[in-house]
Amino acid sequence: MLGGASKTFTNWLGGPFPFTSPTETKIKRSPTNLSFPSNGCRCTTSAALHLPLTESASPGQFRVDILSESLPFIQKFRGKTIVVKYGGAAMKSPELQASVINDLVLLSCVGLHPVMVHGGGPEINHWLGRLNIDPVFRDGLRVTDAETMEIVSMVLVGKVNKTLVSLINKAGATAVGLSGMDGRLLTARPNPKSSDLGFVGDVARVDPTVVRSIVDSGQIPVITSVAADESGQPYNINADTVAGELAAALGAEKLILLTDVAGILEDRNNPESLVRKINIREVTKMMEDGKIGGGMIPKVGCCVRSLAQGVTTASIIDGRVPHSLLLEILTDEGAGTMITG
Asked: Which among 94, 113, 125, 257 is most buried, taking Cβ atoms within 10 Å?
């Protein structure tokens, strides 16, 4: 699925952060004329981060060459806010989890402002199972009664959030964990289908003040998708929805959703039918035609809403690919589907 640039970049990042493993690579320096595509196009042949193999070079020189060719991408996003919704396979696999954490730290180190939003479906299901409670989903949303809501709060706020904060701190950055209730970041309201879904909420209001102060201090906010309504009743909100609304409130340059699929597929039954770039009108038609369904519906919906509120681009990427965040931001091919306004 991924072209030369992304393969080269992934191979370069194959070792543990901060790239301490030795590399025996033969490269040829070929003339390049790099600039970031002004139209944001997705190319099937890579214009950056691709060094054909031939002449001998030291591991240090190889890494410097790759970093040099990353410069236009770093310049484009430096100082910009990137909201990343973390979940799926990237949350279940220790190797992929380490990849995402290291990507966030690297992006922060080169001047981007990453904000992480997370759910924790697998962990919630694990604890529900230990309590002999069967998880139930409708239209990609978890049915959440009072007992389940208590478990969701404990798992997301008390366990998953603090684990991610600890991992980011260990990787060399400084993270601050928040729920939607902290600093009145999110105010919830019942989902229109609350009679069927229970304490499943939507985002009624976002006050990003507390997040902006964390970002401005050079730290990485890690936000879980539990929030309360005006009366203090907690609600479980879809993490994709939270990421989209927060991206819009922050005026983010990019929203990225990590998923367990390659991206949006033209044919849901054909994993090779990846749509690399699509606009709001086209993706809306795909939804109307029934080509997008299940858990992809809220993902696409939150992307469309965030774009309509000013986010520049939104991407649904394959979280099963190591370093997919860097592939999405630092290559022109990306790692999934990019939706534009």
From this structure: 257
Scan for tokens 């340059």, then name that residue: 253
Which pLDDT band holds residue 56 (cuts at 50, 70, 90)? low
Pairing of strands 336-340, 313-318: antiparallel
Query: How would residue 296 be classed by pLDDT, with cut points 50, 70 and 90?
Result: confident
Please identify which residue in the block is written with the tokens 């965030």: 306
Q: How far is CA 54 from the centre of its chain?
A: 35
> What are the Cα distances from residue 158, in Å, to 130, 153, 226?
17, 7, 11
- In 3D, which of 232, 247, 314 has the Cα closest to residue 279? 314
Cα–Cα distance for residue pair 50/53, rounded to 1 Å: 9
Report the C-alpha gap between 322 and 341 in whole angstroms: 28
Cis status of the peptide bond prior to 271, with omega within 30 of 0? no
Per the DSSP assignment, residues forming a β-bridge with 188 are: 203
Chain CA centroid to CA 119, Å: 11
Residue closest to 91 by CA, chosen among 82, 83, 100: 100
User: In the chain, pLDDT over 70 holds for what percent of residues?
Assistant: 83
Q: Residue 235 carries which DSSP code? A: E
Strands in the chain per DSSP E: 81-86, 113-118, 137-138, 141-142, 175-179, 186-190, 200-206, 220-224, 226-228, 234-237, 254-259, 277-279, 313-318, 336-340
